[in-house]
TrEMBL record:
Keywords: Hydrolase
GO molecular function list: nucleoside triphosphate diphosphatase activity
Species classification: Eukaryota, Fungi, Dikarya, Basidiomycota, Agaricomycotina
Hydrolase in keyword set: yes
Protein name per the record: Maf/Ham1
NCBIfam families: maf
InterPro entries the record matches: ITPase-like_fam, Maf-like
Organism whose genome encodes this protein: Coprinopsis cinerea (strain Okayama-7 / 130 / ATCC MYA-4618 / FGSC 9003) (Inky cap fungus)
Superkingdom of origin organism: Eukaryota
Cofactor: a divalent metal cation
Length: 250
């Protein structure tokens, strides 16, 4: 196995193609790194320098495209930077992700869809919750989520080299999971804010940590709420091997 593909990885068509390829994760998230490791991938870590400041107003009628767009910028920025700075060791696959929490989600089952289908979605009144700015903003978020249903959306993007201009291809998915918050007393929310665990998490909570005490149930992919929908990502790789003749061939 290559240094980016571990011995316990399943011997599928996509994993076999990734052997001896340079895989890069455009994130320094330890959670995403660990989730990828569960399927036998240990990519090089090269965090993106993209500022993640896309105007949300531009996605008012296709809100699920917002994290996909951010992840796309992250992936392309890292790919182009590495091709320029390390031409003899350019990446064969760059993976990027961005997770947001949407308030007031409709109580329907979660879905995964190709991002090209997201444009068919109608207007959404949902508010995008990213990372809290400070403790006051953190508590505001949790009070808004408390006793309600939110939707966690992760956009996952992969970039790989091709011979045609601009020299790479991009493919993306978005994964959606519903999270049902319990009707928690405000004192519990305040204690969670003071603990600080959720201050660097989209929506202000970490389901895999102390934030689990705030949540009643979820519908959909647990790993998506943590930050990376690994099952759908794996299916994406398998699809690319089947449908994209130039995938990992350059």
């Amino acid at each position: 196995m290559s240094k980016n593909v571990l011995a316990h990885a399943l011997k599928t068509a996509s994993i076999e193609k990734l052997k001896d390829k340079r895989i890069v994760l455009a994130s320094n998230s330890p959670r995403r790194k660990e989730i990828l490791r569960t399927i036998g991938l240990e990519p090089d870590i090269v965090p993106s320098t993209f500022q993640e400041n896309l105007p949300i107003s531009g996605y008012a009628h296709q809100i699920h495209e917002y994290p996909v767009a951010t992840a796309t910028h992250k992936a392309i920025e890292v790919y182009e930077r590495l091709v320029e700075s390390e031409p003899d060791n350019a990446p064969d696959l760059v993976i990027a992700a961005d997770t947001v929490v949407l308030t007031h989600a409709p109580e329907t089952s979660s879905t995964v869809s190709q991002s090209v289908l997201s444009s068919a979605l109608g207007p959404s009144p949902q508010e995008v919750l990213e990372k809290p700015r400070d403790k006051e903003d953190h508590l505001r978020m949790l009070l808004d989520l408390n006793g309600n249903v939110c939707e966690v959306v992760t956009g996952v993007v992969v970039v790989w080299p091709v011979l045609q201009s601009p020299g790479y291809k991009v493919q993306s998915i978005d994964e959606r999971t519903l999270v049902y918050f319990a009707d928690n007393p405000q004192s519990l929310l305040e204690a969670y804010v003071e603990n600080g665990e959720g201050i660097d998490r989209a929506g202000g909570f970490a389901i895999q940590g102390l934030g689990s005490v705030l949540i009643r149930k979820i519908e959909g992919d647990y790993n998506n709420v943590v930050g990376f929908p690994v099952a759908s990502f794996f299916k994406l790789l398998e699809m690319l091997v089947e449908e994209e003749d130039d995938f990992l061939e350059v």
